[in-house]
Amino acid sequence: MNTNFAVRAGILYLVIFVINFAVGTCQTATNPVRGSCTIFSASAGDKVFFGNNEDYYRPRTYLWTEPGTNGNYGCLYLGFKDYSHQGGINEKGLCFDANALPKSKLNLHEELVPPPNYDAPYENFVIWIAVLIMRKAATVEEAIDLAGRYQRNNWYADAGGLKYQLHLADAKGDAVVISVDQQGELAFTRKEPGKRYLISTNFNRANPDNALDFPCARYALTEQMLDEIQNEDALNVEYFKTILDRSHEEGIFNNTLYSNIFDLKNGIVYLYHWHQYDEVVRLNVTEELKKGIKLVRIKDLFSGETQRAASEEYAMSILLLSVSVVLGTILVIAAIGYIKKHKFSMMDK
To answer: What's the Cα-to-Cα distance from 77 to each of 14, 204, 273, 311, 342, rounded to whole Å?
Structure first.
C-alpha cells in the first residue's frame, strides 16, 4: 500500500471521527440520550415494588412534595430543576416514571374534552398528564381512564409528536406502560395476568421500531433477573437495588444520576445518588407530605462523602470531554494544514 495514501486515509478517518464526536456532543444538549432510564415494577404476595434508574447528563436533580388539597392526592416527585417531573409517587401508592423515545406521531383528538389547567399564575398551561394522574388517580385502572379522557395536548406533544412513554404501577400490583402506537393512538401495555413484572427501557412497548435502543441489553438483563423471583421472599429492596446497580449507566454523556425504589404497599421511597448503592435515603411518603411543600437537591439528602464522590466523577467526565474537544480541534487543524501542504484530494493520481 502506498504510504502517502495510508497517511491521508488515516487523517481523513480522524477528521470524520472528530466531526461525528462534535455533532454527537451538540445533539446531546437537546435530544434524549441513547440508553436512558431502566424502569421495572414487580409484585409477589403482599409486596409491590417499583424501580427506576434516571439516566441523563444533567447533574442537578431534585425532590419535591405537593401535599394533597382541593380533592388532589398528595405527591412526592423526582426530577430536574424548574419542577421538571421525571417520576413520582402519590399518597395512594400509584407511581410513574418515563422512558425517552424518538418522536412518534400523536393524534390530538380535539373532539374530546380539553384537559384542565394549572392554578394561577400558570392558568395558561394544561396540567401534564402524569401530574394529573398523580393528583386524581389511585390505581392503574383510574390512570388509564384519565389518560384517554382528554385531548392529547396535555401530553406535551412537540409539533404533534411524543418523545417518551409512561410506566405506571399501583399498590395492588397492577402496572401499565402508556405509549403511542403506529397509528398515533395511545397504547396500553398491561402487565400480563399471572406475570410478576413489567419492564420498560428505551424502545416503545407498543411499537419496538420506535426505539433509541432495540434490542436493549438493559431490558434483557432486567428481565432475566426478574424471572428469578419465584416467591414473595425473593422480592425485596436489596434485590431491586442489585438490578438497578447492574443496569446503571456511566459515561461522559450519560450517567445514572439517581435511582429510586418505591415500596408501593407501604409508601416508602428508597433513594440512591449517582449510582452509589452503598448509601440509601429512606423516606415515608405520608410523613414527607405532612411537612408541607418542600424542594431539595437530591444530593443534599446524602452524606458529604457520597456527594464528593459524585462531584469528583462528574468533574472527571467534564475534564475528559474538554481534553477530547481540545485534542480533536488540534488534530483537525493539523490535518487541514497537512492537506493544504500536500494538495491532498480525494482522487489520488
So the answer is: 45, 24, 15, 23, 60
The number of beta carbons lying within 10 Å of the beta carbon of residue 223 is: 14
CA-closest candidate to residue 117, choices 106, 131, 107 = 131
| More confidently predicted of 33 and 308 | 308
- The answer to whether 288 and 65 have CB atoms below 8 angstroms apart is yes
List of domains in the chain: 37-302 (3.60.60.10)
Q: Say how many Å lie between the first and final Cα of the chain, rounded.
A: 14
23's CB contacts (< 8 A; 6+ apart) are none
326 pLDDT more than 80: no
| Per-residue pLDDT tens over the stretch 85-98 | 999 999 999 999 99
CA–CA distance, 346 with 329 (Å, rounded to integer) = 22
d(CA 48, CA 214): 28
What pTM, to 2 d.p., does this model score?
0.86
Q: How far apart are CA 86 and CA 99, in angstroms?
A: 9
The stretches of the chain forming alpha helices (DSSP H) are 3-28, 129-136, 140-149, 217-227, 237-247, 285-290, 304-342
Cell of 229: 423471583
Say which residues have a Cβ less than 8 Å from residue 307's Cβ, sequence separation at least 6.
273, 299, 300
Other residues' Cβ atoms within 10 Å of the Cβ of residue 241 = 18
Geometric angle at alpha carbon 109, from 208 and 210, rounded to 5°: 10
Please tell me whether the peptide bond between 193 and the residue prior to it is cis, using omega within 30 degrees of 0: no
Element holding 249 (H helix, E strand): none
CA 304/CA 214 separation, integer angstroms: 38
Query: What are the tens digits of pLDDT across the range 238-248?
Result: 999 999 999 99
Please tell me the distance from the alpha carbon of residue 116 to that of residue 126, in angstroms, as a whole number.
6
